[in-house]
Amino acid sequence: MGRVVLTGIGAVSPLGNSFDRSWKAALAGRSGIGLLSRFDSGGLPWSAAGEVKDFNPGMYLSPKEIRRLDPFTHYAVAAAVMAASDAGLIPSNSSPITRHPSLLSAGVLIGSSRGGIRTVEREMERSCRGSSRISPYTMPSSTIGMAASAVAVTLGIRGHCLGISNACTSGANAIGEAFRLIKSNHLRVALAGGSEAPLCRFCIEGYGNTGALSQVTPLPGERPGVPRPFDKARDGFVLGEGASVLLLEDLESAVERKAKIYAEIAGYGNTSDAFHMTRPDSDGESWAMLMAMEEAGTTPDDVDYINTHGTATEIGDITEARAIRTVFGRRSSVIAASALKSMTGHMLAASGALETAFTAMTLRGGVIPPTINLDEREPACDLNVVTEKTDREIRIALTNSFGFGGTNAVLLLRKYSS
Predict the structure, then answer these.
(1) Peptide bond into 280 cis (omega under 30)
(2) What angle in degrees, to the nearest 10, is found between the helix axes of 349-365 and 170-183?
(3) 49: left (phi over 0), alpha (psi -120 to 50) or beta
């Protein structure tokens, strides 16, 4: 069994259209939340969103591809190209793209909860108005697997190709499954992550009617103040969009080509609550954390940092805090933790991937980004949530992702040392 390292990161997020910009914004505690503008939300009680801003898909795709593919695929291709470039497998600003030979047999695993739902909504609206026939590209462009397929086409990858849809854990699951494929020598290189473009009326009303969305309206010129993970006044998550893709490879390959290494991925826990469609269960969450630690050969005493799922729903935050207490006991109030959705909103599958990348940067740089909007801690969430940018040496970290249906995915990252 080989060691697996992270050597490239790409992202498109509410915090910026590259990973570097997103990371710098997170360190500054900047919010990517604003007033929903993707459609007229007048009359709806949910008006906050984490929107990608000023994104130009023409930097990565042809006009024909842009027309035929859903925005969730636009974001995925952009993030994957940036990750491959960051890893040194394609040169920056190369058109047409020239590829490192290892990409030919690489894998692509991209997770998404909602896939091309904006395309589906648009085509159904057209059909209901009787203004045009449904596009023949509706079915291929809306399928979950199209993001992975489009990345493969763009980068000339002919190896393992998989779209994963496992609710909000999909992005973390994609990274975990890629980790396992490389660890077991089925692959040497893989691009893995998550992508979402769910900011449409169908999703806002759908999530809103479950009672999971915040009803706070952001005011122009003021800090939005939502979402509020682990805060007593939290009232739900804010839906976001974007993508993050990571380039993973076996350590031997990375060392051989003298790649920069952000962190080592050493453990993966994937469990089901087997409990309820929408209500999480702390037993399943705690088991996923323990499973990731067991695979990595570590114990709860070894963990220095937890990147929480932290969505700001009433039941979700309390359940996660309970799971962390089950695993870490008294240390749960000492271990540094953060809830990065306070800045990005909940990007569904993309959150798990972006937060894995942020966790890798925390390990590499020894700095923890803050959790914002946490003013009065929920008594039942007695975690050591960091609210200021904090310099601290972190050796081992967990990043949690949980989803509808009781899906749980936890990744354990280790600071790289040869």
Answers:
(1) no
(2) 60
(3) beta
Q: Quote the DSSP letter at residue 301.
A: G
Whole-prediction pTM: 0.97
| Beta carbons within 10 angstroms of residue 183's beta carbon | 19
Distances from the Cα of 35 to the Cαs of 21, 50, 220, 346, 400, in angstroms? 21, 8, 8, 15, 28
Question: pLDDT per residue over 25-71, tens digit each?
Answer: 999 999 999 999 999 998 999 999 999 999 999 999 999 999 999 99
pLDDT digit string (tens) for 115-174? 999 999 999 998 888 767 899 999 999 999 999 999 999 999 999 999 999 999 999 999
Least Cα distance to 318 among 409, 379, 251, 236 occurs for: 379
Active site residues: 168, 309, 346
Q: What is the DSSP letter of 143?
A: S
d(CA 243, CA 197) in angstroms, rounded, equals 9
Is 11:354 a contact under the CB 8 Å cutoff?
yes
Tokens encoding 302: 């070894």
Pairwise CA distance, residues 275 & 279, whole Å: 8
Residue among 233, 177, 171, 394 at smallest CA distance from 304: 394
